[in-house]
Design a protein that fits this description.
This protein is of the alpha/beta class. It is built from eleven helices and 19 strands. The chain is globular, with a radius of gyration of 22 Å. Bound molecules: pyridoxal-5'-phosphate.
Length: 409
C-alpha cells in the first residue's frame, strides 16, 4: 500500500489516503503523532531546490526530535549545522554528538553558559547570540572563569517601520548603526568573547502568510509590504556586514531567513546560510504563502469516542493550540477525511474535540481523524513519540524531546 501524492490530490485520492492512514493506525493507541517520511523527503527536496547552493541551517525548535534532526542533516551535505533555541538544548545536542550549533537567542543563565563552555572545551562549535552589552558581560565573565574563548554572533533587527505599523518582531536591540557600533566596540575590548557570526531574522517575510484563501485584499497589502521590506532588509544587511568586516572581523557566517523567506534571503550576496525549520514538517500555517508550497509531512490522529448526532464525531484530546498572537489560525485543523472541520463554538478542546463531517467516509467509534498542527515543533511538546511512516508502513517510532524527558522552553 502506497500513499498517493498529496500534491495532486483528487477527492477520491484524499479519501483513499485517509483509509491508508486509518489502516496504518488501526490497533494503535490514539492520540498519536506521526511523520510521513515520504512527504518529509519531498519537503527536503523542495527546500534544497529553493535554497540553491546556499547551505541550510536546521531550526531545531521546529523539529524537536533528535532522530529527525539527524535524518535531515544526513540527507544532504547542503544541510549544515543547527539553529538551537536554548542553551540547555545546545548542550544536550552537543552531548548527543551534534556539532556546529548556533543558539539564536541570548543565553542569560550563568549555569547554562558554564555548561556550554564545557562543550566548547571539548572542541565542539557552539556560537551564542548577543545584542546587548549585558549579554557580552555574562559571556566574558564565564569565559574568563573557564579560560575558554566563546564565539558569538550579533543579531541585527531587520524589522521595517511603516506609518502606524512595526512590520517585524521585537527581539534585538541592535536596531541601527549606532547600536551596532557600540556593541562591536565593546566586543573589541573583551578577551574571551569572539565575534564570528551575524544573524538577522526577517520575520515579516519568513513568518507572515500572504496567500490566505478569502483574504485577497489583505494578501495584496502584505505582499506589497514584504516587497518593500525585502529591499530595505538587503540594504541593511549589506551595510552591517561590510562595516563589521571593515573593522577587521572575519565573519564565519551570515545567517538569515526562515522557511517563508528562502528565496529573498538567498538572493542577498552577503548571506552565507539560510535557516529552515518549519518547512520540513510543513504545518498548516505554511500552506498560505504565495512563493512555495510543501507537503503535510507531520500530523496527529485523534480517536472518535462519541457520536452525539449524525455528522458530529467527538474525539479525545486535540486542543493543541500554537503560540503567538491569539487568532483562529493557531488552532489545529482536521485534515483527513477531507471536509472534516472544527465546530466554531467549541474549537479544538482540552479533552473533547467535536468534528463536523458529512462526507463519503463512514466513521465509527475508535476511528481516527487526522489533524495538522498550526506550527511545526510545538506538536512534539504534546507527544512522547512520533510514528515514522514510509511506503505506507509504520517503520519506526522515535522519541520527541518530550519523550526524551526534555522540556527546554
Ligand atoms: C532566529 C530565527 N531564525 C529562523 C527562524 C525560522 O524558522 P522556521 O523555518 O521554523 O520558520 C526563526 C523562527 O522563529 C527564528 O526565530
Amino acid at each position: 500500500m502506497r500513499l498517493v501524492d498529496v500534491k495532486t490530490f483528487t477527492m477520491e485520492e484524499e479519501n483513499f489516503t485517509y483509509r491508508c492512514y486509518k489502516a496504518l493506525f488501526r490497533n494503535r493507541k490514539l492520540p498519536l503523532a506521526y511523520v510521513d517520511l515520504d512527504l518529509l523527503d519531498k519537503n527536503i527536496d523542495l527546500i534544497k531546490k529553493r535554497s540553491g547552493k546556499t547551505p541550510v541551517r536546521i531550526a531545531s525548535k521546529s523539529i524537536r526530535c533528535t532522530h529527525l534532526v539527524k535524518y535531515i542533516l544526513d540527507s544532504d551535505p547542503l544541510f549544515q549545522g543547527i539553529m538551537s533555541f536554548s542553551g540547555s538544548e545546545a548542550v544536550y545536542l552537543s552531548k548527543n554528538r551534534f556539532d556546529n550549533i548556533l543558539i539564536a537567542y541570548p543565553v542569560v543563565n550563568q549555569q547554562e553558559i558554564g555548561q556550554i563552555c564545557g562543550e566548547l572545551k571539548k572542541g565542539k562549535y557552539i556560537n551564542l547570540m548577543v545584542d546587548l552589552p549585558e549579554h557580552l558581560d555574562l559571556l566574558e565573565d564565564e569565559g574568563r572563569k573557564q579560560g575558554t574563548p566563546i564565539p558569538v554572533s550579533i543579531d541585527i533587527d531587520l524589522s521595517v517601520d511603516f506609518p502606524g505599523l512595526h512590520f517585524g518582531v521585537w527581539r534585538s536591540a541592535v536596531r541601527d548603526m549606532k547600536s551596532l557600533k557600540n556593541l562591536v566596540n565593546r566586543i573589541k575590548q573583551l578577551k574571551y568573547v569572539q565575534l564570528e557570526g551575524l544573524m538577522g531574522y526577517e520575520a515579516q517575510i519568513a513568518g507572515v502568510t500572504d496567500h490566505v484563501p478569502g483574504q485577497a485584499g489583505l494578501n495584496a497589502v502584505k505582499h506589497l509590504l514584504k516587497k518593500i521590506s525585502i529591499k530595505k532588509i538587503a540594504a541593511k544587511r549589506k551595510q552591517t556586514v561590510e562595516w563589521i568586516r571593515g573593522q577587521g572581523f572575519n565573519l564565519k557566517f551570515v545567517n538569515g531567513g526562515g522557511t517563508g523567506s528562502v528565496e529573498s534571503t538567498i538572493a542577498e550576496p552577503h548571506v552565507t546560510e539560510v535557516t529552515v525549520g518549519s518547512g520540513f514538517y510543513s504545518p498548516h500555517l505554511f500552506d498560505y504563502y504565495h512563493n512555495f508550497s510543501l507537503y503535510p509531512a507531520a500530523g496527529f490522529a485523534l480517536a472518535i469516542n462519541r457520536i452525539p448526532k449524525d455528522g458530529i464525531f467527538t474525539c479525545s484530546g486535540g486542543g493543541y493550540i500554537a503560540s503567538g498572537s491569539v487568532e483562529g489560525i493557531k488552532a489545529p485543523v482536521p485534515w483527513l477525511p477531507t471536509g472534516a472541520r472544527l465546530d466554531a463554538n467549541e474549537g479544538a478542546g482540552e479533552v473533547q474535540t467535536p468534528v463536523l463531517y458529512k462526507g463519503p467516509e463512514s466513521l465509527s467509534i475508535g476511528d481516527p481523524v487526522l489533524f495538522r498542527h498550526s506550527k511545526a515543533g510545538e506538536l512534539c511538546e504534546r507527544f512522547n513519540s512520533l510514528l515514522l511512516v514510509k511506503n505506507g508502513k509504520v517503520i519506526d517510532e522515535v522519541p520527541t524531546y518530550r519523550g526524551e524527558g526534555k522540556c527546554f522552553l
